Amino acid sequence: MGTMTDTETRLDTLLAAPAASGPSYAADGRLYFLCDAGGSAQVWELPAGGGAARPRSEHRDAVSFVAGSPADGSAVFGRDQAGDERIQFYHLPERGAPRALTADPKTIHAWGAFSPDGTRLACTANDRNPAHADPCVIDIATGAFTRLLEVEGPHELPGWYPGGSAVILSTAPRTFESNLIGVDLTGRSTDLTPHEGDRRHMNPRWRRDGQGFWLLCDQGSEFLGVAFQHSGGAPRFLFAPEADVEKLEVSPDQTRLAVVVNQDGYSRLHVLEAETGAVLDTPQHPAGVITKLTWHPDGTALAFDLACPTRPSTLWHYRPGEAAAELLFAASEPPAVLRDWQLISFPTFDGRNLPGFLALPEGTAPAGGWPVLVWVHGGPAMQALPNWRPDLQMVLSLGIAVLVPNVRGSTGYGRAYAALDDRELRLDSVRDLAAAHAWLSGQQQFDGQRIGIMGQSYGGWMVLAAVTEYPELWAAGVDYYGIARWKTFFERTGPWRVGHRAAEYGDPVRDMELLERLSPLHKTEEIRCPMLVAQGMTDPRVPPHESEQIVQALKRRNVPVEYLTFPDEGHGFLKRDNRRRVYLGVASFLAQHLRPDRG
C-alpha cells in the first residue's frame, strides 16, 4: 500500500485540487464565488461578458460568503480573524480593492441580504450583548449603522420586504423551530408565521406585489416543502416531496422557483412553476451536494455549485428548458481516479435500518479483511453528505475502508428520526455506532479487530462517548475539538450559542445531572484505545479547554494520545497548510494503529 512518503504525495495532490463554491450573480451579470486556489477561500469573479476567472480578494483567513449586488457589479463579502467567527463585512467595487464596512473585531456580523435597490444591507450583530443578535441595517455608501430592534437570542435575517420598507427576521430557538418576523425601519415588528408547536419557516422570498411570500415550511409534515403564504394567512403547500427541500430561489420575473431536494443526502435540482408548484424541469447533473443557487439577473440561467466524493466543488450552469446542466467553472482538472461512496444501510438495536455511506479502498480486501474508519458527523442535527473529503480519500489510499453513518438524530430523514436522540435518549445514537461496528464485523471483507472511529465537534463527543461506553470495540479514536464535559462546555462556549445548544443538549442548570452523566470526561478510565486529538485554539464554539481536559486525563492514565493544536484556526481547519498537517497526523496515527504493517 506504499509508504508515508507516498501518502504525503497523494495528500498534496488532493489538497492542491481547489474548490469553487457559493456563487452569486451581480446585477451586471458577473458571477462572484469563493475559490481556495490560493490556500484559503477567497472571492473570485467570472466576468459578465466572458473571459477568465480572476481573484478579487487576498487574505490568509478564509472568506465566509460573497453576495453580488442587485444594483450594479459590486459585491459584499465577509471574513473573520483566524477562525474566531467574528465576521466583518467588506464592500467590493466593480473595480479595485475592497473597503471595510464594519470594523468591530469583537462583534459577529451575520450576513442577511441587500435591500432591493442595493444601497443598504441588512444583517444581525451581537455588539450590544454577545448572546443576542439584533437586526441592523448598514448604508453601503456611508457605513452608517442602524439597529432596528433589540431582541433576545440568536437570529438570522434572510430578506427584505418589496420596496425596502422592512426586513424579515428569523428566530430559531430550537433546531426544529424557526419563525419569521417582519421588522420595519422604525423597529415595529409583526409575526409573519403564527402557529402552534415546533415548526420551521425558512427561506422567505416576498412576491413583488407585497401580497405574500414563498418559503420552506414543515407545518403538518415530517419534511420541509415549498409553500406560499399570503399576508396574514397560513402556508399553502405547492411542492411537498417525501424529503426535505433545502434550497429555494425565485427567478427575477417571479414565474419560476429553483429548489434543491435532499434525496438520501444527494442534492436534486428542480425548477417549479411559481404559482402552482408544478415541476417544469428536473435537469440532469452529477450526483453530489449543492450548497448555493443563484439566478442570472435576466432570468435566462441558473448557476449552482456541486461537490461530490471524487471531485471538489465546481460551478454549474443551467438554462431552463434544456435537458442538462453544463459545467461552468472548475478551478482545476479532476484529481486522479478516486474512490466513490455508495449508499448503504445497516441494522441497529431496535430493529431499524440506519442509512449511511460506504467507501472501499482500491483492489481486493487483504486476508483478514480491510480495516475500517467510522466517521461520525457533528451537529447532532446535521447529516453526513456525499461531499468532497480529501482526508477520507487519503484514508482510503492507506487501504482503510470508510463508513459514514447517519445515526438517529441526523437530519434529512424526517422530524421523527431527528428526535430519536433527544435528551435522555442521547446514548441511543452511540448504541447505533456499536451497531455499525457489529455490522462491519459480520462481513468477511472487513476486519472487526481493526475498526477506528473519528468525528469533529459534536461528532468528537460521539467519538469520546463511543470509546467510553463501548471501549472494547475500537482500535483507535480521532477526536477533532469534541466536547469532553458538558458543564465546562456551557461555561466557555460563545454566549450567543448557549440558548440554542441548551435546547438541543439539555439545560446546563436544570439538566446538569443528565449532562454530567453524558460527559465522557467522567469515564476516561474506560478508554483502552490510542487517541489523537486536534484543536483550533481560537475556537469559540468548543473552546480548547475541552480537548485539553481529555488529553490530560489520558496522559494521567498513560493511554497513548497525540495532541495537535493550531493557533490560527477556530471551529474547523480551513487553511491548506493546516489541513495538510492535521491530515498527515491522522494518516500516520491510523497507519500505526489500524495498519500495523504500515506503522
From TrEMBL:
Pfam families: Peptidase_S9. The keyword Hydrolase applies. This is Acyl-peptide hydrolase. One of its GO terms (biological process) is proteolysis. Residues 391-595 form the Peptidase S9 prolyl oligopeptidase catalytic domain. Keywords: Acetylation, Hydrolase. It comes from the Bacteria. It comes from Teichococcus wenyumeiae. InterPro entries: 6-blade_b-propeller_TolB-like, AB_hydrolase_fold, Pept_S9_AS, Peptidase_S9_cat, Peptidase_S9A, WD40/YVTN_repeat-like_dom_sf. GO terms for molecular function: serine-type endopeptidase activity. The lineage of its organism: Bacteria, Pseudomonadati, Pseudomonadota, Alphaproteobacteria, Acetobacterales. This enzyme catalyzes the hydrolysis of the N-terminal peptide bond of an N-acetylated peptide to generate an N-acetylated amino acid and a peptide with a free N-terminus. It preferentially cleaves off Ac-Ala, Ac-Met and Ac-Ser. Also, involved in the degradation of oxidized and glycated proteins. The keyword Membrane does not apply. Gene3D superfamilies: alpha/beta hydrolase, TolB, C-terminal domain, YVTN repeat-like/Quinoprotein amine dehydrogenase.
